[in-house]
């Protein structure tokens, strides 16, 4: 009888990337099992980011989008649950894995009880720590959820979030680059830039990104920023590039593995704590990441890549706000452009002019 494993994982792009290492561990331990992932689907739209990222990767066999995780409408949550339950009741499940932190798994845990799944595994409650305490990376935390299983797990900072691309994806990016003469005439480096988030509390003032890129351009004459974003960022990405006077927006409605392939061609990532940052880490790209202090230091940092994380501690850190009004985002606005410029220079390869200066 085929083993069946049910996995719940909420979240969209970044939340899916950071779960890849745990899914890889699960697949490695149960190579012949049928693994079904219940993932978050956007409230609107036809396809979920987890589907677009994980389909064809061999980590899971079936992906079931669920519109009930963060839907603000209680009625629509009930409808989503009523749609999900019949799909899950068709099968007997050997394991149910709640791949999230403990406090976010209550409703899914109750659902596994409704399904009468005896072997239901979820994270243990986090210990209470002060807001200024550095905590383990979320990738390692999710791997740790699997610790009750009789499987060998990697040590901290040894998980694998890479997502191999196919030849067709490499060909698409080759053709996209060929359509942009600036990427031919410009010398390196190419810098992937992601200034926007669906949480305004994370965002650094966009004019400071402009200041940083101008300063970097003085040191690296051929530096070309590539703006990474989704369809909703198209207008502001185009405006950003036009006001800057150089760079290219990559804001088409793309399969995330195409973005991943483009990121692998870049020299460095510069941006905030958002989904593209985790994609950049999955591509092995060095990251300069500007963090708010809304969550603990360490939890969401780029995983297993050369990185410089800029974070300014404030008395209100650990707030977990999506929007900061009272303190006007003091934790991010106190991060100065000069510090970001230096962090980028430390991770970028030396420019030809700087190499000549050292002779």
Structure commentary:
The chain has 15 helices and 11 strands. It is an alpha/beta fold and about 350 residues long. Helix 11 packs across helix 12 (about 275-280). It is globular and about 65 Å long. Mean pLDDT is about 90; it is low at about 355-359.
Q: Could you give a short description of this structure?
A:
The protein is of the alpha/beta class and 359 residues long. The chain has helices at 13-17, 20-29, 49-54, 74-89, 106-114, 138-145, 167-178, 182-185, 206-219, 234-244, 256-265, 275-282, 330-333, 337-347, 352-357, and strands spanning 4-9, 34-40, 62-66, 95-98, 120-122, 190-194, 224-228, 248-250, 268-272, 287-291, 307-311. Strand 9, helix 12 (275-282) and strand 10 (287-291) form a beta-alpha-beta unit.
Tags for this entry?
359 residues, alpha/beta, six-stranded parallel sheet, five-stranded parallel sheet, 15 helices, disordered C terminus
Topology:
Layout: E1 4-9, H1 13-17, H2 20-29, E2 34-40, H3 49-54, E3 62-66, H4 74-89, E4 95-98, H5 106-114, E5 120-122, H6 138-145, H7 167-178, H8 182-185, E6 190-194, H9 206-219, E7 224-228, H10 234-244, E8 248-250, H11 256-265, E9 268-272, H12 275-282, E10 287-291, E11 307-311, H13 330-333, H14 337-347, H15 352-357
């Amino acid at each position: 009888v085929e083993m069946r494993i049910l996995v719940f994982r909420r979240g969209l792009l970044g939340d899916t990337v950071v779960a890849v290492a745990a899914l890889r561990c699960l697949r490695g331990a149960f190579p012949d099992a049928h693994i079904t992932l219940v993932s978050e689907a956007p409230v609107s739209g036809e396809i979920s980011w987890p589907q677009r990222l994980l389909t064809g990767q061999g980590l899971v066999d079936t992906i079931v989008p669920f519109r009930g995780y963060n839907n603000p409408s209680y009625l629509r949550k009930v409808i989503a649950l009523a749609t999900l339950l019949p799909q899950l009741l068709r099968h007997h499940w050997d394991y149910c894995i709640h791949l999230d932190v403990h406090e976010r798994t209550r409703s899914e845990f109750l659902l596994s009880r409704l399904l009468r799944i005896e072997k239901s595994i979820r994270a243990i409650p986090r210990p209470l720590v002060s807001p200024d305490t550095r905590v383990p990376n979320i990738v390692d935390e999710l791997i740790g959820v699997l610790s009750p299983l009789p499987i060998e797990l990697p040590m901290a900072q040894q998980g694998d979030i890479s997502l191999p691309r196919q030849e067709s994806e490499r060909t698409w990016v080759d053709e996209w680059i060929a359509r942009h003469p600036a990427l031919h005439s410009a010398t390196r480096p190419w810098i992937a830039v992601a200034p926007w988030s669906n949480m305004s509390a994370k965002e650094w003032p966009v004019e400071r990104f402009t200041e940083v890129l101008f300063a970097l351009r003085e040191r690296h004459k051929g530096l070309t920023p590539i703006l990474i974003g989704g369809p909703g960022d198209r207008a502001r990405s185009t405006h950003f590039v036009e006001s800057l006077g150089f760079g290219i927006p990559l804001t088409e409605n793309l399969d995330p593995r195409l973005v991943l392939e483009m990121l692998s061609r870049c020299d460095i990532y510069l941006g905030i704590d958002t989904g593209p940052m985790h994609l950049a880490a999955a591509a092995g790209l060095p990251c300069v990441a500007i963090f708010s202090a809304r969550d603990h230091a360490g939890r969401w940092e780029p995983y297993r890549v050369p990185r410089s994380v800029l974070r300014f501690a404030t008395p209100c850190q650990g707030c977990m706000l999506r929007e900061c009004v009272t303190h006007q985002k003091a934790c991010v606005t106190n991060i100065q452009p000069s510090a970001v410029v230096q962090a980028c220079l430390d991770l970028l390869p030396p420019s030809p002019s700087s190499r000549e200066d050292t002779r």
